[in-house]
Design brief:
Elements lengths: L10 H4 L4 E3 L4 E2 L1 E4 L2 E5 L9 E2 L2 E3 L9
Antiparallel strand pairs: 1-6, 2-5, 3-4
């Protein structure tokens, strides 16, 4: 059976060495016919936000 939608991943599994935030917190906007629309929300109606992070793993090779 294939997974549908988001699937849970623990932060420590994805980034065992932690991360550094390298950007401002910004809203995630949807687009309709190439025009910026409303701020996106998740399946529970919570607004979505985005940041850029840098993996703190010394073996990592760039932004995550």
């Amino acid at each position: 059976m294939a997974l549908r939608g988001p699937f849970p991943v623990e932060f420590g599994q994805a980034f065992p060495h932690g991360v550094y935030v390298t950007s401002e917190v910004e809203p995630v906007y949807g687009f309709n016919d190439g025009q910026k629309g409303q701020q996106e929300s998740d399946d529970h109606g919570r607004l979505m936000w985005a940041i850029t992070v840098l993996d703190a793993d010394p073996e990592a090779k760039g932004p995550a």
